[in-house]
Amino acid sequence: MAKPSSLFLILISLSSLAFLSESRLSYNYYDKSCPRFTQIIQETITNKQITSPTTAAGTLRLFFHDCLLNGCDASILISSTPFNSAERDADINLSLPGDAFDLVTRAKTALELSCPNTVSCADILAVATRDLVTMVGGPYYNVVLGRKDYRVSKSSYVEGNLPRPTMPMSNVINIFASKGFSVQEMVALSGAHTIGFSHCKEFSSYIYNDTHYNPRFAQDLQKACADYPKNPTLSVFNDIMTPNKFDNMYFQNLPKGLGLLESDHGLYNDLRARPYVEMYAKDQNKFFQDFARAMEKLSVYGVKTGRRGEIRRRCDAIN
């Protein structure tokens, strides 16, 4: 058998090195290719959060729904076509806020003008989420860069793979476990409910006969959602005490029966989760530390790099 030529081996080696280099995630991924990356993201999120204060919570939720399904690959951003029903049109994703999608679109437009075909939508969403969490009082955490955008997005993949607010806690724990997350990490990530709001349809069926609710809180929710059948946009803050501040008040609310969703009550009533709820209710620094670590882990879950993805020219459409 003829031996491969030295030139052929060199070409193969160079090709392999190029692929490895392209696939590597790093903190300074855009330092040379897009020097204004950080500045553009910061300017975009600041302007958006000031004009729409619910953007931080909405973007955090969008990030969860993107990453927890099949990795942080911006597949949640792709619009459906006549030939494909995308993730964002799955039932559980229909309530994802438009402000979060708009934020990513604005950042992508600005970045394309500064450094065309360079920054992925997945990286934009990951960094914008971190910066918004920090902006509303939450912990800073590291985000590596170099994700590519996935070319596949199907609504049929969603059902049963994202936690619903009405799910038994065992099901929620199993979903997180299937992605490699512990009960403690699940509880820490659930602390994201310290900001944002939920529509009445997510909890209205429980507020009349669920003894987990504080009785006075249940009465207030009944009044707030009284016109829900006529106005499905009615909503209530997830944390009624400090709704726009990222803190540990969400965990302090749960033992008092002030959780909004059935899954919130489930955290406190489940013997596997309760110790962490009580720990975070007492120690905000511990919550911030564990939330930051869990977000770092989530932000690299199922990441597509190299030739497994692409840099989309538009975040809502495959190239």
Automatic annotation (TrEMBL):
<dbReference type="InterPro" id="IPR019793">
    <property type="entry name" value="Peroxidases_heam-ligand_BS"/>
</dbReference>
<keyword id="KW-0376">Hydrogen peroxide</keyword>
<keyword id="KW-0732">Signal</keyword>
<dbReference type="InterPro" id="IPR010255">
    <property type="entry name" value="Haem_peroxidase_sf"/>
</dbReference>
<feature type="domain" description="Plant heme peroxidase family profile">
    <location>
        <begin position="24"/>
        <end position="319"/>
    </location>
</feature>
<keyword id="KW-0349">Heme</keyword>
<keyword id="KW-1015">Disulfide bond</keyword>
<feature type="signal peptide">
    <location>
        <begin position="1"/>
        <end position="23"/>
    </location>
</feature>
<comment type="function">
    <text>Removal of H(2)O(2), oxidation of toxic reductants, biosynthesis and degradation of lignin, suberization, auxin catabolism, response to environmental stresses such as wounding, pathogen attack and oxidative stress. These functions might be dependent on each isozyme/isoform in each plant tissue.</text>
</comment>
<keyword id="KW-0479">Metal-binding</keyword>
<keyword id="KW-0106">Calcium</keyword>
<dbReference type="Pfam" id="PF00141">
    <property type="entry name" value="peroxidase"/>
</dbReference>
<protein>
    <recommendedName>
        <fullName>Peroxidase</fullName>
        <ecNumber>1.11.1.7</ecNumber>
    </recommendedName>
</protein>
<dbReference type="InterPro" id="IPR019794">
    <property type="entry name" value="Peroxidases_AS"/>
</dbReference>
<dbReference type="InterPro" id="IPR000823">
    <property type="entry name" value="Peroxidase_pln"/>
</dbReference>
<comment type="similarity">
    <text>Belongs to the peroxidase family. Ascorbate peroxidase subfamily.</text>
</comment>
<comment type="similarity">
    <text>Belongs to the peroxidase family. Classical plant (class III) peroxidase subfamily.</text>
</comment>
<keyword id="KW-0560">Oxidoreductase</keyword>
<dbReference type="InterPro" id="IPR033905">
    <property type="entry name" value="Secretory_peroxidase"/>
</dbReference>
<keyword id="KW-0408">Iron</keyword>
<keyword id="KW-0964">Secreted</keyword>
<keyword id="KW-0575">Peroxidase</keyword>
<dbReference type="InterPro" id="IPR002016">
    <property type="entry name" value="Haem_peroxidase"/>
</dbReference>
